[in-house]
Design goal:
- With 255 residues, the protein is mostly helical.
- It has one domain.
- The protein is built from 13 helices and two strands.
- It has a two-stranded parallel ribbon with strand order 1-2.
- Helix 2 (25-38) links the parallel strand 1 (19-21) and strand 2 (46-48).
- Helix 8 (141-151) packs across helix 11.
- The radius of gyration is 22 Å and the shape is elongated.
């Protein structure tokens, strides 16, 4: 499909640019096959998607080196098994299961939303906000889930206490295994800070070029715009690593 398209637009080895692709192995295969006909070096012509690189950084940070295995297990699991898988992921897993519990039925969602104006606190004051559930482990979904949960932290704590008083076995299981302590909320705040930069840099590299917005903003997602961002990510994590090592949080955060 790609080769006829290149031929139609008169693209040959003499005027061929570069391919911006993610790390999927079938992309390597595609370029290798194209190179046989067009005559180019597939490794030289292959560039990585910056947004995909940021996503890989977030995945490794959140899920470690077994991210592919976890993703495969997660996609095949039903709801009970997914709860068990998430419980292996420290504070994030507890939050996921708690949010999933709220969103599992319209009745629970309505109860959670009703608590917000009753409490009338924080950024939720006078508003009824929906929680955000991490839909798998792609891109910034975990960051968005944590950010919204921190905005509604006190509401979630009250909701969890209601589970504790409920006689339903499923509610009891959720409370016993997924209730978040004050220390765990603090750890989630650090995780949010560590993921925030990846979120905003991804957004900055999206969209069409618009030079009218002035300097200092990514416009074409070219290499001279991406490289400083990679340096910024490195500085960001090194600084937060020192912050975590000087605290009483679990070792896995600094690792």
């Amino acid at each position: 499909m790609i080769l006829p398209l290149l031929t139609r637009f008169g693209i040959t080895s003499s005027n061929l640019g570069y391919f911006v692709l993610d790390n999927a192995s079938n992309n390597d295969t595609t370029l290798t096959e194209l190179a046989k006909t067009l005559g180019f070096d597939p490794k030289l012509k292959r560039l990585r998607c910056a947004g995909h690189i940021f996503n890989l950084i977030a995945e490794r940070y959140l899920y470690g080196q077994d991210v592919s295995k976890f993703e495969e297990q997660y996609s095949k699991a039903g709801a009970p098994e997914r709860r068990k898988l998430w419980r292996e992921r420290n504070e994030v897993r507890k939050l996921y299961n708690l949010v999933a519990h709220v969103m599992a039925s319209g009745k629970r969602t309505a109860l959670f939303e009703a608590l917000q104006p009753e409490l009338n606190i924080g950024v939720a004051e006078g508003k009824r906000w929906k929680l955000v559930l991490n839909r798998g482990i792609r891109w910034n979904s975990t960051y968005l889930m944590i950010r919204r949960a921190l905005e509604l932290q006190e509401v979630l704590d009250i909701y969890a206490l209601k589970l504790h008083r409920n006689g339903d076995a499923f509610d009891q299981e959720t409370y016993d295994n997924d209730y978040l302590s004050e220390q765990e909320w603090k750890a989630l705040a650090i995780i949010k800070d560590q993921l925030a930069l990846l979120f905003y840099l991804t957004k900055e590299l999206e969209g069409n070029a618009d030079l009218s917005e002035g300097g200092g903003k990514a416009s074409h997602r070219v290499l001279w715009e991406v490289l400083p961002m990679l340096e910024e990510v490195l500085d960001h994590f090194e600084g937060l690593e020192k912050q975590v090592k000087n605290s009483d949080f679990d070792d896995y955060l600094s690792i």
